[in-house]
């Protein structure tokens, strides 16, 4: 997101001089990355010592988080929005996503968290879908003030979790395939800053992250003491039961500060934050998300 004024540009340059991890993060965006899909950061006019790390969903990009980022910056947060690996290409039909793996996702999130630490001491991580899964994984870091996972992907809504690991392994033994999110709109579907199709191998590897979180929950409780899972009671894609199973396992291991915020009365949906896909849902959900993220 380019600076909006000369003053913003000066603040940006001064910040980058003192923030080597943030510079490394931004330098990962080569010319093949679309403008609205690039990693970005925002500095507040009146910093209050807080930073927000915003993690987008599978096939999306930092553009998904633009509106939330601007509002949080207006409330005093320094904001870092990283582009996840293999996302955000100008060629929306790229096959690059099929190469996505869990290790590079974790590495990118660790770099982004380091960048956020360069900007402020009190850090809140917010993630949607795949980003929500990554936010829950980052909650093993005791330095986080809060982790908010919005519709985190810990399993499939239509598939029992005991079957999901077998299905994921089977998918990875087969050739990768791409499927349209919307088979009618196909390449015309919005938002333009996201891919219109997903990779079966990418989904299976992302599920591996979720499965590891669930499998290790009793042995590896989170260190962050304020963790919120935001679920939609009429969720269309991810498994809310798996979210509750993770929270229960963490509580059994002695974790504190866990809670679920259930969104009721929405229509059947998964993407509840992208204003260019479902503006009515995004407008309705945003005020509640801001309350949760900022504890207002």
Structure notes:
- The protein is α/β, with parallel strands linked by helices and 296 residues long.
- The chain has 9 helices and 9 strands.
- The strands form 2 sheets. The protein has a 7-stranded mixed β-sheet, sandwiched between helices. A two-stranded antiparallel ribbon has the order 6-7.
- The longest helix is centred in the middle third of the chain and has 18 residues, at 102-119.
- The radius of gyration is 18 Å and the shape is globular.
- The two termini are 27 Å apart.
- The model has no long low-confidence stretch (mean pLDDT 94).
What is shown here, in short?
By secondary structure, this protein is an alpha/beta fold. 38% of the residues lie in helices and 16% in strands.
Q: What brief labels describe this structure?
A:
globular, alpha/beta, 296 residues, 38% helix
Helix content: 25-40%
State mean pLDDT (0 to 100 scale).
94
* CATH architecture assignment: 3-Layer(aba) Sandwich
Q: What name is given to the CATH topology?
A: Rossmann fold
| Number of self-contained structural domains | 1
Number of helices: 9
- The share of residues in extended strands comes to 15-25%
Order of helices and strands: HHEEHEHEHEHEEHEHEH
Poorly predicted spans: none
Number of beta-strand segments = 9
The major sheet is characterized as: 7 strands, mixed
CATH superfamily: Alpha/Beta hydrolase fold, catalytic domain
User: How are strands sequenced across the largest beta sheet?
Assistant: 1-3-2-4-5-8-9
CATH class: Alpha Beta
What is the general shape? globular
Decide which structural class fits the backbone: alpha/beta
């Amino acid at each position: 997101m380019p600076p909006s004024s000369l003053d913003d540009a000066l603040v940006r340059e001064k910040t980058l001089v003192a923030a080597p991890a943030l510079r490394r993060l931004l330098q990962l965006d080569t010319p093949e990355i679309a403008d609205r899909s690039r990693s970005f950061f925002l500095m507040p006019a009146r910093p209050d010592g807080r930073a927000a790390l915003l993690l987008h969903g599978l096939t999306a990009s930092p553009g998904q988080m633009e509106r939330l980022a601007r509002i949080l910056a207006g409330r005093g947060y320094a904001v870092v929005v990283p582009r996840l690996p293999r996302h955000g290409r100008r060629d929306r039909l790229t096959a690059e996503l099929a190469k996505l793996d869990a290790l590079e996702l974790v590495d990118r999130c660790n770099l982004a968290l380091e960048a956020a630490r360069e900007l402020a001491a009190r850090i809140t991580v917010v993630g949607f879908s795949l980003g929500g899964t990554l936010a829950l994984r980052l909650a093993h870091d005791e330095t986080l003030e809060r982790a908010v996972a919005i519709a985190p992907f810990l399993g499939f809504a239509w598939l029992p979790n005991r079957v999901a690991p077998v299905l994921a392994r089977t998918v990875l033994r087969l050739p990768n395939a791409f499927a349209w999110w919307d088979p009618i709109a196909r390449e015309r579907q919005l938002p333009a800053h996201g891919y219109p199709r997903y990779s079966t191998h990418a989904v299976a590897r992302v599920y591996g992250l979720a499965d590891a979180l669930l499998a290790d929950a009793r042995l590896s409780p989170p260190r962050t003491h304020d963790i919120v899972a935001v679920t939609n009671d009429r969720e269309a894609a991810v498994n809310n039961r798996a979210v509750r199973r993770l929270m229960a396992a963490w509580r059994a291991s002695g974790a504190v500060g866990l809670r679920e915020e259930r969104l009721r009365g929405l229509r059947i949906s998964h993407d509840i934050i992208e204003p260019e896909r479902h503006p009515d849902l995004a407008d309705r959900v945003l005020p509640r998300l801001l309350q949760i993220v900022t504890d207002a």
